[in-house]
Amino acid sequence: MESKAEQYYPTYTFKSEHRDIVLLEFEEAQKIANTQTKVYGQVANILIAVTTILIPLFFNQDTDEKEKTLTIIQSNSLVFSLILIAFGGILLRYFVELQRQITINARKVVSLRAMLGLDYGSIHLTLPNWRVEGANNPFVIKYFNGWFWFQTVPFWVLTIGLNVIWWLATNQKESILIQYLPFEIKWFYGNILLTIWYLFIFRHHLNEQHETNYLNFIKFFCKIFRIKLMDNFEYILYRAKLSYIELERLNVKYDVLKKILIDIEDKDFKTNSGISFKSLLRGALSRFKFLRNKSGYIKHGGSTITMQLSRSLFIPSNQNKYRRKITEIFLSLWLNKQFKKDEILKLYISSVRFERGVLGLSNAIKYFLGELKDKELTKEESFFLVERLSNITSTVNWQRIDHLKNRTKLVIDSEKLTEVYKKQIENRKLKE
User: Model pTM?
Assistant: First the structure.
């Protein structure tokens, strides 16, 4: 593979004489992952014990207590609670980094296992394929699995324990007057701020490479409204990246296709934010036959290239179309922030459906045009493939083809284009 291409574990091979080194790496990664997991558990247990000891110190309000240490804590409970909250934030950050290290080493174990040719997939009922012991795909081992897994114990212990300590230190104070501010702040607001701060520290720093707080909100929104999304976004993006890297490796030239695609599907692609309200409105109007005939529209959904990509990759079909469209919009805004325009275009071309069961440009070229390696698409072939994107009925509609030809700036040779379609009809790939 060329050096400019990103390296992914299935594309990497090693020489047979280096197998012993790979085995040593595998053993070391497995050892480190196991050791760190044990450390995580031990420190979590210590944290539970320490929190259990600290809380009674704030419960005991006996002013006649003789012990000086307890008296100092009680008389300065607010200061001590603030110190403990700050220390708790630092400690929580340590747990997050430890969890990331555990996950990275676990993924390394699975990646090296794949390189060595080991596969536990067929016995996943015995060795779960979502755990490092039986996984074949490193992406199934996540930084964050959910709020009720073992990895979240430090978060719950610190958040609940320090909320209790803050409440005990401040519950007898109705409010505090902040100097220079003309209003009072209730002390229980501290509990809200503490919880939000710890939530941010823990969850934000366990995001995957392309995961953001905004994406987590979208997923939460979809759960509430029962919109199904694909499970592992990171793995899906990885596969899409691998597809366009494969096109580069095979020296497939498709720059002309990119230009035609933008002209036909999304003229404002390079300047929009991932969505186009003008296109959405035009798509809505195209649903009415009268307006289609009057304005010369063809029936379409008004989705931008980015919206189509988000739908293709992350939103399963056979769901309520209006809910899907709203989810498309949200996910498109996220994709537009995560990737540059050229990369979004590559992801789209390497992932989108060109025909029933034909996903991605490499499969489309092999299915319709034959040889893939060193292939340079002509203008006519490029137009043909772009036209197939929004017409997967395996039929040829000449009126539609003429309409789309007028939307591209490139000059398409009608005779050559007709030959491309006739050849597909002769090969029974399409029908008139």
Answer: 0.81
